[in-house]
Write a structure and sequence with these properties.
Aspartate Aminotransferase, domain 2, Aspartate Aminotransferase, domain 1, binds ligand 09M, aminotransferase, glycine:2-oxoglutarate aminotransferase activity, PyrdxlP-dep_Trfase_major
Length: about 425
């Protein structure tokens, strides 16, 4: 695989920061090394000495002085070595990526700790996309990614989806406008990247079937695409066993996978990680070096203490508990929709995540949701926010069931029902 084709000129121009190189050398040198290189502040001037965390299960985690000094000091851009090692082991345990341990393969998997997966997606797209490029993106899609992509000025081609996720037949139909050989022609506008949210989609809550994932991967192979697998809801799949990831089938080194700790452990710690081909991860690391330098050290050390205490089995048990929490909320949400919205809206049962995607029997939801709904003390997100063309009318709204009680969801949908009836009588 020739990765240069996928890296834009800004990213290709990036060079390792000499200071960050020295930080890495200093960290990996023997105690005899005397470093007067790095402009590190002296940790003895820091007011925080240690910390103690109490988990909901009663476990007490103590971050002593030595570890706290590491947490509060500059650290390597790729991530704390211990956390990198742990998440690498998690990927092996969960996805068994074919290229995880093939160090000599050009697409050997490398990992970067990011400030949440939003940060990772931004670095990947800002390192790969040029204005002349064509990017395939499932629609509807996550507004956070649309906010990154649209300003880059590339051509965005929407790939339709349904209750089983992105439609590979529509993807094939779009790609049939090119020949696979066009990928060898630098002047061709053949698509290079495919962005998808394979499980518990945002905004739909739908997930790709295993068959569709295989078909999409085969099409990516045929047309030399790289796949951006944005998968913060992987562990929140309601069906068991979980449907395998695209990374688990990646024999070519064409999947860049974004994981997040936001939906399982904390969204405020701002930690996620990217698993992908080393040449791409290296470009993202250089991007990170020139901006935030590294993800928060205190967040990384805090997370690592929790993960090391759990181990992989404990992590999976926690993920299963969180999934059951959201399954119960999903059931309450669907029950409230059936009770109040039957005949006024359509929806399919979410297969994971934390969202219900409602198609209302009105021509456009934007003004109804952004103006009238607030007067009725209820908030949703209008469907246009998830579309490539956010000016076009949309009959959809996204409802998040993650934060509301069953009673609140019932009342919210009762209010939405009266809004729909009013809108049907007097369209805004
Ligand atoms: C598909 C997909 N990919 C990436 C991310 C980012 O997650 P990270 O790991 O925390 O950076 C997300 C997070 N989605 C949302 C976040 C959010 C934050 C504040 C307020 C509202 C928010 N709404 O509505 C969201 O959907 C996501 O759904």
């Amino acid at each position: 695989m020739n990765y240069t084709r996928f890296i834009n000129s800004v990213s290709l121009a990036r060079k390792p920061s000499p200071i960050r190189v020295l930080t890495a050398i200093a960290l990996s040198s023997p105690p005899s090394m005397i470093s007067m290189a790095g402009g590190n502040p002296n940790v003895k001037t820091f007011p925080i000495q240690s910390a103690t965390l109490t988990l909901r299960n009663g476990t007490v985690i103590h971050i002593g002085e030595e570890l706290m000094q590491q947490a509060l000091q500059y650290s390597p851009t790729p991530g704390f070595p211990g956390l990198l090692e742990w998440v690498r082991g998690l990927q092996d345990h969960i996805h068994t990526p074919p290229l995880l341990n093939k160090k000599n393969h050009p697409g050997a998997v490398d990992i970067l700790i990011t400030n949440g997966s939003q940060d990772g997606i931004a670095r990947a797209l800002e390192s790969m996309v040029s204005p002349k490029d064509t990017v395939l993106i499932e629609t509807p899609s996550y507004p956070g990614t649309l906010a990154i992509l649209k300003p880059l000025g590339c051509r965005l081609l929407p790939v339709q989806s349904d209750k089983h996720g992105m439609d590979p037949d529509h993807l094939q139909h779009i790609l049939s406008n090119w020949k696979p050989s066009h990928a060898l022609d630098p002047s061709s506008d053949i698509p290079k990247l495919l962005y998808c949210i394979p499980n518990g989609g945002n905004p739909t809550g739908y997930g790709l079937t295993a068959e569709r994932k295989k078909k999409i991967y085969q099409l990516a192979r045929e047309y030399s695409l790289l796949i951006l697998e944005d998968d913060p809801y992987y562990y929140l799949q309601f069906s068991k066993p979980r449907i395998p990831s695209l990374l688990s089938m990646d024999e070519d080194g064409r999947v860049i996978r974004f994981d997040s700790f936001s939906k399982l452990i904390s969204s405020g710690l701002r930690l996620g990680f990217v698993s992908g081909p080393k040449p791409i991860i290296e470009r993202m690391q250089l991007h990170m070096q020139a901006t935030v330098m590294h993800a928060s050290g205190l967040s990384q050390i805090t997370l690592l203490q929790i993960l090391q205490g759990w181990g992989y089995e404990g992590f999976k048990q926690h993920a299963d508990k969180v999934t059951e929490f959201y399954r119960e909320r999903k059931n309450h949400c669907v029950a409230a929709a059936k009770k109040h919205l039957t005949g006024l809206a359509e929806w399919s049962e979410p297969s994971g995540g934390m969202f219900l995607w409602l198609k209302l029997k009105v021509p456009d939801t934007f003004k109804m949701i952004t103006v009238k709904a607030r007067e009725k003390d209820v908030l949703f997100v209008p469907g246009n926010a998830f579309m490539l063309d956010d000016q076009a009318p949309s009959q959809y709204v996204r409802a998040a069931y993650s934060m509301c009680t069953a009673e609140q969801m019932d009342l919210a949908f009762e209010r939405l029902a009266s809004l729909i009836r009013e809108e049907q009588l007097n369209p805004s």
